[in-house]
Design brief:
This protein is of the alpha/beta class. It is built from eleven helices and six strands. A hairpin with a 2-residue loop joins strand 2 and strand 3. It binds guanosine-5'-triphosphate and magnesium ion.
Amino acid sequence: MAFENPMQPSMDEIRLLLIGPPKTGKSSIANILAGYNVFPVGSSSSVESATPTTQSRHFTNKKILVGKHLLVVDAPPLFILKDATSNEKDMRRLAKCAALISPGPHAIFLILSCDDAKNERFDMKQIVTTVFGAEALRQSIVVFSFIDRLEAKGISVHDWINKECKQQALLEACGHRYLVIDSSHNDQNKHIEFLNRSLTMLNELWKTEQIFKSKMFDDMEQEIQRQEKNRWDIFQNKYANNFHGSESALRILLREHMRDELEREPILAEADYLVVEKYLQPIVKSLLQEVERYLEEEIAST
Ligand SMILES: Nc1nc2c(ncn2[C@@H]2O[C@H](COP(=O)(O)OP(=O)(O)OP(=O)(O)O)[C@@H](O)[C@H]2O)c(=O)[nH]1
Ligand SMILES: [Mg+2]
């Protein structure tokens, strides 16, 4: 699948990060963006069946955009933090996700369901600001999934979003950029239509917004580049003879190898982890407070 819509010429690689509350269709949408079913899609609504940390969470499609790589990172649900003892594990999970998308996403897709009761529990505006900084919202697109539930009730999706949906503050912070999809659908034409709408929106976004920078990503990238430097000679000797692309293409290939390695490892390399720990420690603390509030509400409502 190739698209006519040309991306910014300076980008060799387009990095998209998908985040959102549990069971909102993140992995289903990641598959549509990637163009292959590579992300495991859960069937149960239980928290335990959420996207596991050890399974494939990133995929690079080298065909979808002419001359560009499209990296899709499907983040684990942000709210499977259960109690304060999971602090370190969750911090490592977030750190791993940051390392996979390093040196930072070109855009973040915030996946929400067309169900306010579900969304209200998670303040995505606050989460994105806390984890990535307020700038990141200007690089974000809200994606409303489960539109079939509204359609089944005869409700117009766009009317619902503009008049009833309680995510107006988030939408405003994201410049009212939003997409809608029934991500359970297998219709290829609908997938292509969604991809085209996504690419058009991304192109518009990149015309006006710089790729956002953050100290956390800068530091993480420095550490990754240090590790890359150590491997470059070995990698070059191994691949250069059979590789007919440019040096920058070979460097992208090395980064791909490193991402694969990172994904296979159940935990993050100690050096990477230490680099981001100082940034993630307070973030995880604030996420845990959020989750505690959520759990208290859940208990109170049962
Ligand atoms: N009806 C409907 N079902 C959907 C939609 N998107 C996803 N699903 C279903 O919802 C379930 C969860 O989908 P996933 O893509 O795994 O959701 P997720 O957000 O990745 O889930 P976690 O990683 O566990 O948080 C699966 O059974 C999907 O088929 C949608 O737009 N409409
Ligand atoms: Mg998932």
